[in-house]
Design brief:
Distance between the termini: 50 Å
Radius of gyration: 28 Å
Shape: elongated
Helix content: 25-40%
Largest sheet: 8 strands, parallel, barrel
Number of domains: 2
Structural class: alpha/beta
CATH topology of the largest domain: TIM Barrel
Number of strands: 10
CATH class of the largest domain: Alpha Beta
CATH superfamily of the largest domain: Aldolase class I
């Protein structure tokens, strides 16, 4: 269902960029909170929750050849620290959001009062997790990276049947994405196929922070997601992550897109008076080809059209209406 809950919402994906350090996570939240407030945008900072002890099978915990396992263990934070980060997001005036990757994490989201939940592209067919998320009745955003049309149809129908606020992101799950990977026309496709949904754009490109958000907004995307990080303590920043100064550029591009697109697309615009006056000055007036007696009924052969249109003069518009009515 379309919902104002998702309208013009920026999702700032902190992910595991805290690197298992609460202080670093809090600094990311505070630094981006400042940029959000400065630009006056509506934003959430999204964390990722995993019950690591059960999420990773005990027989694989010491495997070094599986990158996902190693990174998850290296960035693990205790639940108390994650609660502190959620509270800091709230204190910074932003919306709290989490991607839970297991059922225990969903329960923690409820316990911590998290406002929105996210379904990652990798979990779009994990119906055990999806049903658990739906049981909270919280608003949900899902990303569609790597999914089939059947996958998306099933997910949309599932949330519609339960009357749960739901938004769908066009997403290309390539990290980083080249500009040629973005497939922004998919926003048009998703809007046509699901006219009652808020459609968003989750992006991982790295060449600029203006073009894609402006085009996505113009195509009708109304929620926008990027990974965020800070240049701090010498920790390398992935190319697809957004730094605070780049987020500032991103937000300003969004505001420019809003300005250029104007009002809604559901009805004809009402032109301002200055535009009407400008065009009226270009309208042709009706001039007599010769002196005509009073009471003479004008015909097309009696007149010619030319500028300027003088005050009180018949214009081509009025003369055309009268002329046509006679022909009928």
């Amino acid at each position: 269902m379309t919902s104002d809950l998702f309208e013009n919402l920026f999702v700032l994906e902190l992910a595991n960029n805290h690197w298992g350090k609460l202080e670093r996570g809090l600094k990311i939240i505070r630094d981006f909170g400042q940029v959000v407030r400065f630009n006056g945008v509506r934003a959430s900072i999204k964390l990722q929750f995993r019950d690591v002890d059960s999420f990773i099978h005990k027989d694989f915990r010491h495997r070094t050849d599986i990158r996902y396992i190693g990174k998850t263990l290296a960035t693990q934070l205790p639940w108390d620290s994650l609660r502190t980060m959620v509270e800091e997001v709230r204190r910074s005036g932003m919306i709290t959001m989490v991607t839970p990757f297991d059922e225990v994490s969903v329960d923690k989201c409820v316990e911590f009062g998290v406002e929105y939940l996210k379904i990652a592209s990798s979990d779009i067919k994990d119906w055990f997790l999806i049903e658990k998320i739906a049981s909270t009745r919280k608003p949900v955003i899902a990303s569609s990276g790597g999914s089939s049309l059947e996958d998306i149809d099933n997910l949309v129908k599932f949330f519609a049947n339960r009357n749960i606020p739901f938004a769908l992101n066009h997403c290309v799950s390539l990290y980083p994405s080249e500009d040629s990977d973005l497939e922004l026309n998919q926003i048009d496709f998703l809007k046509r196929r699901y006219p009652n949904l808020t459609i968003g754009f989750s992006t991982h490109e790295y060449h600029d922070w203006s073009s894609s958000v402006m085009m996505a907004y113009a195509k009708g995307a109304r929620t926008f997601e990027r990974h965020i990080d800070i240049d701090y303590e010498g920790v390398p920043v992935s190319s697809y992550c957004t730094l605070p100064e780049q987020a500032d550029t991103w937000f300003k591009a969004f505001k420019k897109a809003q300005e250029m697109c104007g009002g809604g697309a559901s009805e004809k615009r009402v032109p301002p008076e200055r535009e009407v006056e400008y065009l009226d000055a270009l309208v042709r007036g009706v001039y007599a080809k010769r002196d005509l007696p009073a009471g003479h009924k004008l015909t097309d052969d009696d007149v010619y059209l030319a500028v300027p249109l003088q005050k009180g003069q018949i214009s081509c518009r009025e003369f055309m209406r009268v002329s046509r009515s006679r022909r009928r």
